[in-house]
């Protein structure tokens, strides 16, 4: 009886500890949900539907790359002895970096938000059953405008945590119901091969899109700004920053794997090609009825909408910071990017302009997502090479420079990104 009592108390203590950490955590959760969005939903489901678990090793590699890059950026933000932003570190290498990142962020940020708004509109239209995809996309934009404003970070943190709860229940529940092939997952994780083309999209496009969506590109640059918003900018914050980021990546692994399992265990056996979101929903309806579709669309909305505000705000900060670095104008430490008029106009542009991709007759959601994710990888070499240099400079970081593993990962990432960009061009022109 006493043993049982001690076990219950131990479990309660464990749950309380998790809940206590969740209340403190923030930047890592926001970063992960901002980066996931349409990219993980589509590439993971398409990969599972077309190739089973054969590309699982790319998922593991991509998540590892992204964790290393984000953790190095977080460490640079916390330990550099001049209080620099990550963009300032890049700018001190060469003005090419902020110039390239600024232009690329405006273009890529617009397309990423377009995916999220378009997909959110599709999900809400299905769930409520009236109106049109376009009307619901406009509503998504209007609601996002209401959330933005003063103290946006605090509001964003709580919205993200709520959406993470919805995602966890929705996709993990569907994955468990799908009865995953554990042996197949393990084989795919250590397979290191590219299967033959078997679906509507080439394996090269799907693979490069997976690396672009998960390993990430310009979205990685957003993370240090979330750390600033949270106030984690001193060496004393390093431990909680790493734990917060690790928690976010564990959530990303679980959720992406859950989406992949749905593709491999339900879509693939029924020879269903993912060309629209409805294709996934219809497959789930075969096994679970309308309830399965409802749970799926609830998760779709959560994973897509979680990226709308985070991307618009994060990319606007990157672009504004790039402007100051290119023009040699100074944003003093007393000033904040959020108070700058350029930031406000850029964030509004990134939030409102993408609605044009939701107009009836525009590019399909799946095609738009795969193209944007694959395009992401083009910026990865510049991010990796620049980060490799600035994160090894002892004059800024002292003893907190990269270890050998991190350097190998950055070099390997550069080679992988260059190869992926080349393959993407060959695939596009052929």
UniProtKB/TrEMBL annotation:
<feature type="transmembrane region" description="Helical">
    <location>
        <begin position="244"/>
        <end position="263"/>
    </location>
</feature>
<feature type="transmembrane region" description="Helical">
    <location>
        <begin position="410"/>
        <end position="429"/>
    </location>
</feature>
<dbReference type="GO" id="GO:0034755">
    <property type="term" value="P:iron ion transmembrane transport"/>
</dbReference>
<feature type="transmembrane region" description="Helical">
    <location>
        <begin position="343"/>
        <end position="359"/>
    </location>
</feature>
<feature type="transmembrane region" description="Helical">
    <location>
        <begin position="294"/>
        <end position="316"/>
    </location>
</feature>
<dbReference type="GO" id="GO:0005384">
    <property type="term" value="F:manganese ion transmembrane transporter activity"/>
</dbReference>
<dbReference type="GO" id="GO:0005886">
    <property type="term" value="C:plasma membrane"/>
</dbReference>
<dbReference type="GO" id="GO:0015086">
    <property type="term" value="F:cadmium ion transmembrane transporter activity"/>
</dbReference>
<protein>
    <submittedName>
        <fullName>Mn2+/Fe2+ transporter</fullName>
    </submittedName>
</protein>
<feature type="transmembrane region" description="Helical">
    <location>
        <begin position="96"/>
        <end position="117"/>
    </location>
</feature>
<keyword id="KW-1133">Transmembrane helix</keyword>
<feature type="transmembrane region" description="Helical">
    <location>
        <begin position="123"/>
        <end position="146"/>
    </location>
</feature>
<dbReference type="InterPro" id="IPR001046">
    <property type="entry name" value="NRAMP_fam"/>
</dbReference>
<dbReference type="Pfam" id="PF01566">
    <property type="entry name" value="Nramp"/>
</dbReference>
<feature type="transmembrane region" description="Helical">
    <location>
        <begin position="198"/>
        <end position="223"/>
    </location>
</feature>
<feature type="transmembrane region" description="Helical">
    <location>
        <begin position="158"/>
        <end position="178"/>
    </location>
</feature>
<feature type="transmembrane region" description="Helical">
    <location>
        <begin position="24"/>
        <end position="43"/>
    </location>
</feature>
<feature type="transmembrane region" description="Helical">
    <location>
        <begin position="365"/>
        <end position="390"/>
    </location>
</feature>
<keyword id="KW-0812">Transmembrane</keyword>
<keyword id="KW-0472">Membrane</keyword>
<feature type="transmembrane region" description="Helical">
    <location>
        <begin position="55"/>
        <end position="76"/>
    </location>
</feature>
């Amino acid at each position: 009886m006493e043993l049982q009592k001690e076990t219950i108390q131990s479990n309660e203590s464990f749950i309380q500890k998790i809940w206590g950490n969740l209340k403190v955590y923030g930047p890592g959760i926001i970063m992960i949900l901002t980066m996931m969005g349409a990219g993980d939903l589509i590439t993971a489901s398409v990969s599972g539907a077309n190739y089973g678990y054969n590309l699982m090793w790319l998922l593991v590699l991509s998540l590892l790359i992204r964790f290393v890059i984000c953790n190095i950026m977080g460490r640079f933000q916390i330990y550099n002895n001049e209080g620099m932003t990550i963009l300032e570190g890049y700018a001190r290498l060469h003005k090419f970096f902020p110039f390239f990142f600024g232009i690329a962020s405006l273009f890529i940020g617009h397309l990423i938000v377009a995916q999220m708004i378009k997909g959110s509109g599709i999900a809400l239209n299905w769930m409520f059953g009236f109106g049109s995809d376009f009307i619901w996309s406009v509503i998504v934009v209007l609601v996002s405008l209401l959330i933005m404003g003063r103290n946006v970070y605090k509001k964003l943190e709580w919205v993200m945590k709520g959406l993470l709860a919805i995602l966890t229940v929705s996709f993990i529940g569907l994955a468990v119901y799908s009865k995953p092939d554990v042996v197949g997952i393990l084989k795919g994780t250590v397979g290191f091969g590219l299967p033959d083309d078997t679906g509507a999209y080439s394996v090269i496009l799907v693979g490069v899109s997976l690396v672009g969506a998960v390993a990430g590109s310009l979205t990685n640059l957003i993370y240090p700004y979330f750390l600033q918003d949270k106030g984690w900018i001193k060496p004393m914050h390093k431990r909680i920053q790493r734990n917060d980021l690790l928690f976010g990546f564990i959530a990303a692994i679980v959720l992406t794997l859950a989406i992949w399992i749905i593709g491999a265990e339900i879509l693939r056996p029924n020879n269903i090609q993912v060309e629209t979101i409805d294709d996934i929903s219809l497959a789930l309806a075969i096994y679970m009825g309308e309830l399965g579709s409802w749970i799926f669309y609830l998760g779709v909305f959560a994973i897509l909408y979680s990226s709308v505000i985070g991307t618009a705000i994060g990319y606007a900060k990157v672009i504004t910071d790039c402007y100051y670095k290119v023009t040699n104008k100074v944003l003093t430490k007393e000033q904040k990017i959020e108070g700058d008029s350029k930031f406000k106009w850029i964030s509004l542009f990134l939030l409102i302009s993408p609605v044009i991709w939701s107009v009836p007759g525009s590019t399909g959601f799946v095609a738009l997502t795969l193209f944007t994710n694959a395009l992401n990888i083009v910026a990865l070499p510049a991010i990796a090479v620049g980060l490799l240099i600035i994160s090894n400079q002892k004059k800024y970081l002292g003893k907190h420079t990269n270890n050998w593993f991190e350097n190998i990962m950055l070099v390997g990432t550069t080679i992988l990104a260059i190869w992926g960009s080349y393959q993407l061009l060959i695939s596009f022109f052929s």
